[in-house]
Structure formats: structure tokens, C-alpha cells
Design brief:
heterodimer, A: 296 residues, alpha/beta, 12 helices, B: Nitrilase/N-carbamoyl-D-aminoacid amidohydrolase, 6-stranded mixed β-sheet, 14 strands
Chain lengths: 296, 317
């Protein structure tokens, strides 16, 4: 049901990752659509440049490749924002992306910002520190949006968006998101097609909020399984019984269902109490990009 | 005229920018005329962009709107299909496609089926049209106009062909989605449309002309892939996906005659049978018909098949 992918990329017969058959996309079409989307978003907003937070992971690396291909690397600023506990490999991998693309980059150490709030010996939980760090990175990249005169490009994928493995107003904040409808497996497939460095594709995905953390370790899932589960359950509208018939464990399906439901708020604009005749998002409905909405 | 040069204007309209789009249409019309086109087809809402929401009222035009005049003037000696938001005298807003010839609007088709499901929300902002008519054209062939979702309803191409259309024209703003690699050209939407258009061309033994826009409105990317299909179901031309362009295709209207003589499906259609059976179904659904002798016990009015679990009490209507 799944096939190893990535042969012929200089690694002999070693598969780079596992791609479930039903999730395989035509990467040329995907690249075409996404790059058109990126250009459209910038043009309609009156911007020519883009900025993103580059972590050293596959999601932001892929987005950097897509943006560079869509508008040229000279119009892209990648901001690297390590914290004192971040893996040195993350920074090295991010630098490899910057080097390969030839785009502008900056390093902003967020340690003083995070530690200035919590204090070095705080007993704040890893969750609080992780969320705070994500929001500091958001603050920095939005500030650089002004100095670079570029729109902030989002780098969250569909899998983490659906299960809510994201910090609201942190890593999920952006002006637009080119890969938010691609599952992790599809991100990997497109990353291979676009030539993202093999070390980045191969390493275990991690929020890098503490040493040794991995997404799959923390969630107790493998991405190929989780992607397939979400694809059949959400995109293909299968019932729990039908999921069991497809071979999924009922308890796992129910657990993922709960994660999706409890994170609904992270995927939506906060509700406004309806009082007046016309209310944004309810009965005042305009496209965000329309005549007069572009800067300048 | 036996030979018709069709120009497909696979454009990316600017959302809500009526003046810009009008100017672009005029320029493209002029270019198509220079290239010898007889029939120039623009996509659905080419003059306004698709995802208008509350902007629809701002860009709506009456048919006598003076802003249309320069565009109409560009159609001397040719036939063109243009699409915009039409406001009726009673201030309903329609997604309209107009056949324009020699500076005159010959016919306006108001989109009949407004998708309001999935990523679509058209019924919220627009009124649905009520008329489905084929119209004669100066090309020497009957024209049947339809807008996007209209083609997802089987009766539309059939009625147009029975009413005399030999060229079925569908103008679309079709959002590309379902990017699975198993799909033809990598796109589920394209697979569905291509299947439909070839089937309709063959079953109505008519030309099918499909003009779909490209470009991006908000989250949506429109996939293009405009086509011309011959009356035997063969694709004569397929435009590239996601790419703007003005594409010309020469067709011979003699193909319609040849196909309809070889394969007289339209001759053998039974519209009176359709009317009779459809009227019966309409009556039964409304609870107006005589006893439905073909229905299973427990079936809802108008449906012959009973639910899997029989209702404990019969439905009262």
C-alpha cells in the first residue's frame, strides 16, 4: 500500500521516505499551482518580496525553495531564529538551504527574548516555553516583514494543521500559506522533486523545542500512517467503521478525531460577537485582495 | 461558412477590476480578429473575476451599461462570448454569458445551476437563470451557451442540442483541486471535465467549446485546460494548464453533418418521452400524481426505492 520513494537521488537504493500510494501527487502540477499562488498573493497585495522563518526542517525548506523558484531568490529573506537549546544541526541545515538558494538570510538568536521573560531557571513547562518561543519567532519575522518589505510566508503543513500540532499566532501566523494543503508525505514528495537537501528530507521531523524531541515520538504516530488516516477520514469522508475496514485501529482513529476537533479553534478566525447590521466574516464578505487593497 | 476559426481567450481576470478587465478583453478581441478568428470565447466572469462575494453588486452591469459599448464595438464581423455580472431590472444579480455579434448582444444566458457546496457559495450572492435556449449565430451554426456548473447537469447539453445548437459553448471559472498523481494530467478536476466534454460532444454530436480561466483568486487557482471537442468526441485542441494565452483552433462545421448522419442520435431522441416521465416524477414528488404503481411500499413520494429500514409510520404529505 505504500512505496519507498526517493531512489535515484544519489543514495543508491535507500528510500528517502515512505509515500502512501493514495497521497502521491503530480509534483510538476503542484509546483506550478503553488508558485502561481505565491506570485498571485504578492502581486495582489502590492509586494514583490517575501520573508519566512527557516528552521532547518523540511517544511520551511520546501517553502523557501518554492518562493525562490516563484519570484527569484534575491527577493526572499530567510530568518534563522535559534534558541539556546536548539539543535546545532537545525542551524546547519538551514544554512545549507540559504547557501543552495543564494537568498538573503539573517540570524536572530531568540534566547534573550525567551529567557528574559521566563528567567533561566524558570520551572515553566516545555509547552509554555515552546509556545512562547514560537510567538517570539513570529514577532521577529513580522518585524523583518517591515524592514525587508516582504510578506510573511507560512510554512505549516496540512497534517500538523489538522491535528493542531502548532502554536496559534506563533508558527501558524502568516500572510499566506503555500503548503497548508499538503500532507507531510506530500511535502516530502515535493521536497525531493525540488531538490531540497537529502539530509533535511531524511531526518526525523521535530519542532526542536527541546533536545531529542521528534514529532512522531511526541505524538506516537508515524507520518505515513497519520497522513493516510487523515486523508481517508477527512478528504474522503470515511466513517469510523469504514476506517476499520481499511485497516485502521479504531482507538487511533478516535484519538486523531479528538485532536482534530479540539484544535478547530486554531484553524479559524476568532468569532466576533454579532451586534451591528454588517459584521466582518459573517455578513460583510469581501475577498481580502480586491481593488484598492494592495499596498502603495 | 464551413470553416470556423475559434479563439479561446484563456485569461486570468483581475478580481473586481472591471475597467482593467474590459480593457484586456478589448485588446484580446482585437488580437483575435487580427488572427482571423470568427468566434472568440472568454471565460466565466472574465470581466469581473470569480470570487466576488459582496463585490458582486459593485461590478454588476445592466445590458445597456455604457461601459460595455466599447467592448461590443470590437465585435464587428465576429461572434464573441463574454461573461460578467448582469443586474436585472428588478435588481437580481446573475452570472451571465452573452453572445455578441456585430456590436449587438444577440443572446444572454444566465447561469442556471449555482453551486453552493464544497468550496462554492454562489447561491448566496447570485440568482439562478430560468431560460435555456439555443440561438442562431452569424457563423451559420446554432450556438448553445452554458456556464461552468450548468454542464454538471445532464439535461443542459441535451436540451441545447435538441433546440438546434451545433456548437455547445461552456465558459468556466473552474477551481483546480484533487491533485492526486493517479488523475489524468495530475488533476482530478481536469479528469472530470475532460470526460464530460468528450461524452457530451459524442452524445449530442455537436462541437463542444470549453473556455476555462487561469490565475488565482484568494486560495483558489483556476486550471485553464480550455478545449475544443469534435462531434465525434475527439479532442481537437487542449490548451495548457494554468497558462494564460489566446489559442486559435480551426474547425469544419461539415463535421456536424457527417457525424449526425453516421450516428443519428439526435434524430432518435425522444423528447416527448422525457417530458412525460419527468412530469410524472415532478408530480409524484409533489404528492400530486396518481398512485405510483412502480414504487416499493414505504418509498418516499417520487422515489421508487424504499429506505433500507422500512419506516414504522408512512410519511404524510
Amino acid at each position: 500500500m505504500t512505496a519507498p520513494r526517493g531512489e535515484g537521488t544519489g543514495d543508491g537504493n535507500v528510500a528517502l521516505f515512505e509515500l502512501p500510494d493514495e497521497l502521491a501527487i503530480d509534483t510538476a502540477v503542484a509546483q506550478r499551482v503553488i508558485e502561481g499562488f505565491i506570485r498571485g498573493q504578492l502581486r495582489q497585495a502590492g509586494f514583490e518580496r517575501a520573508v519566512l522563518a527557516l528552521s532547518g526542517g523540511i517544511d520551511s525548506a520546501l517553502v523557501a525553495y518554492l518562493v525562490a523558484s516563484a519570484i527569484g531568490p534575491e527577493r526572499l529573506l530567510c530568518v534563522l531564529m535559534p534558541y539556546r537549546t536548539s539543535s546545532p544541526d537545525s542551524k546547519a541545515d538551514a544554512e545549507a538551504v540559504v547557501h543552495a538558494l543564494g537568498c538573503a538570510s539573517e540570524v536572530v538568536d531568540i534566547t534573550p527574548m525567551v529567557d528574559g521573560y521566563f528567567g533561566v531557571d524558570s520551572d515553566a513547562s516545555a509547552l509554555r516555553r515552546g509556545n512562547f518561543a514560537a510567538r517570539m519567532r513570529m514577532s521577529v519575522v513580522y518585524d523583518r516583514s517591515v524592514t525587508w518589505s516582504g510578506l510573511v510566508v507560512g510554512t505549516s503543513n496540512k497534517t500538523e494543521g489538522l491535528i493542531g500540532y502548532t502554536t496559534i499566532f506563533g508558527d501558524n501566523a502568516s500572510a499566506f500559506n503555500p503548503i497548508g494543503d499538503l500532507y507531510k508525505s506530500q511535502v516530502r514528495q515535493l521536497a525531493v522533486a525540488m531538490g531540497v537537501p537529502t539530509t533535511i528530507i531524511r531526518k526525523a521531523p521535530s519542532a526542536d523545542l527541546w533536545p531529542g524531541q521528534t514529532d512522531e515520538g511526541e505524538g506516537g504516530f508515524s507520518y505515513p500512517m497519520l497522513d493516510r488516516l487523515l486523508f481517508w477520514r477527512i478528504d474522503k469522508r470515511r466513517s469510523i467503521e469504514e476506517m476499520e475496514a481499511l485497516g485502521f485501529d479504531r482507538a487511533t482513529v478516535e484519538r486523531v478525531d479528538r485532536m482534530v476537533a479540539t484544535s478547530e479553534f486554531k484553524r479559524q478566525v476568532p468569532p466576533i460577537a454579532k451586534l451591528g447590521p454588517r459584521t466582518s466574516g459573517i455578513d460583510y464578505l469581501y475577498p481580502r485582495r480586491r481593488p484598492g487593497s494592495a499596498r502603495g | 461558412m464551413n470553416r470556423v476559426r475559434i479563439a479561446l481567450a484563456q485569461l486570468a481576470p483581475k478580481l473586481g477590476a472591471l475597467e482593467d478587465n474590459l480593457e484586456r478583453h478589448r485588446a484580446v478581441l482585437a488580437e483575435a480578429r487580427e488572427r482571423g478568428a470568427n468566434l472568440i470565447v472568454f471565460p466565466e466572469l472574465g470581466l469581473t473575476g470569480y470570487l466576488l462575494q459582496d463585490l458582486a453588486a459593485d461590478v454588476a452591469m445592466r445590458l445597456d451599461d455604457p461601459r460595455l459599448a466599447p467592448l461590443l464595438a470590437e465585435t464587428h464581423g465576429v461572434s464573441a462570448v463574454v461573461s460578467f455580472v448582469e443586474e436585472s431590472a428588478d435588481h437580481r444579480l446573475f452570472i451571465a454569458a452573452a453572445l455578441v455579434e456585430d456590436g449587438q448582444i444577440r443572446h444572454v444566458h444566465r447561469k442556471l445551476f449555482l453551486p453552493t457546496y464544497g468550496l462554492f457559495d454562489e447561491r448566496r450572492f447570485f440568482a439562478a437563470g430560468d431560460l435555456l435556449r439555443a440561438v442562431p449565430s452569424s457563423l451559420g451554426a446554432g450556438i448553445g451557451l452554458a456556464v461552468c456548473e450548468d454542464f454538471w447537469h445532464l439535461a443542459v447539453p441535451q436540451v441545447l442540442a435538441l433546440d438546434g445548437a451545433q456548437i455547445l459553448i461552456n465558459v468556466s471559472s473552474s477551481p483546480g483541486r484533487d491533485l492526486a498523481s493517479t488523475n489524468e494530467v495530475g488533476l482530478g478536476t481536469a479528469t472530470s471535465w475532460r470526460t464530460m466534454m468528450r461524452t457530451y460532444a459524442q452524445l449530442t454530436t455537436s462541437f463542444v467549446v470549453f473556455c476555462n480561466r487561469v490565475g488565482v483568486d484568494e486560495s483558489i487557482s483556476f486550471w485553464g485546460g480550455s478545449e475544443v471537442i469534435a462531434p465525434n468526441g475527439e479532442a481537437l485542441f487542449s490548451a495548457p494548464l494554468y497558462e494564460e494565452g489566446l489559442f486559435t483552433v480551426d474547425v469544419s462545421l461539415g463535421d456536424v453533418r457527417r457525424e449526425r448522419i453516421a450516428l443519428p442520435l439526435l434524430r432518435d431522441e425522444r423528447p416527448e418521452l422525457h417530458v412525460r416521465e419527468l412530469q410524472r416524477i415532478v408530480d409524484e414528488r409533489a404528492g400530486l400524481g396518481p398512485v405510483d404503481t412502480t414504487a416499493e411500499p414505504g418509498a418516499e413520494p417520487g422515489l421508487d426505492i424504499a429506505p433500507l429500514a422500512p419506516l414504522t409510520t408512512p410519511l404524510e404529505r
